[in-house]
Amino acid sequence: MDVKKYIDSGILELYVAGQLSDNENLEVHKHALENTEVLAEIVSIENAILELSKTASPKRTYSFDSIKERILKSADVKVIDIAKKESNWSQYVGWAASVLFAAGLFYMYTQNENLKSELEVVVQENLQLEQQISDANLSLEKSNELLATIRDKNISVVPLGGQEVSPTSYAKAYWNTDQQKLFIDAQGLPEPPDGFVYQVWSLKLNPLTPTSVGLLEDFVDDENKVFALNNPNDNGSEAFGITLEPAGGSESPNLEQLYALGVVAAS
Description:
By secondary structure, this protein is an alpha+beta fold. The protein folds into two domains: 1-57 and 91-151, no CATH class; 155-263, Immunoglobulin-like. Helices cover 45% and strands 23% of the residues. It has six helices and eight strands. Strands 5-4-7-8-1-2-3-6 form an eight-stranded antiparallel sheet. A hairpin with a 2-residue loop joins strand 4 and strand 5 (208-215). Helix 2 crosses helix 4 (36-56), helix 3 crosses helix 4 (36-56) and helix 4 (36-56) runs antiparallel to helix 6 (89-151). It is rod-shaped, with a radius of gyration of 43 Å. The model has no long low-confidence stretch (mean pLDDT 79).
């Protein structure tokens, strides 16, 4: 329905004036429930008619003295009985019905807005649930990938023991040379302070040559504390170490903040 064309047709004015048939009244009532612009136009027309009625009513003031003076000036005073005009109750009932109808439409509009708000809440809850399911699936995929890596016959398991800065710390490296993947199980490391991050290093021992493998990002938020990193074979890894570095990582390891270290077993 073209709402503007419907409003401009004049049918709403006839509706407020009570000049439509029952079927036409029902049709307008239906459109008003379904469309807030139609409802607003009906209320606007009713308000305009009420203001027009107030404006059209004459405002005069009479005093007893002025009436007496006019009577005395009259040469021929006639008393005419004027029958009291019957009140037009049907008009009052019509206005009352219009007011009640407008109130009913406003109530329906309010209920509709409340339902929309409740629906938006339900949609948001569903989106959050879908995100939780998606996160759970990703975590499951990560766990399956780790299990497949650990069970691979070409895997090298390297225990990393705690060092002087944190003797109780420990970690474990799972190195798959075929896939050039390195998984770090960092469950045994303490949470890094704000502004710092753990950095993993591939080490050649003679001479000591460190190469950064990657950072253990989002350490606090990672539930299983298992991180997947790339470790190309040309790194020539003979050992792995984990240091605590400023956020963003460092070009060379801070050996004073060496938390875990482990040597790759000779094959």
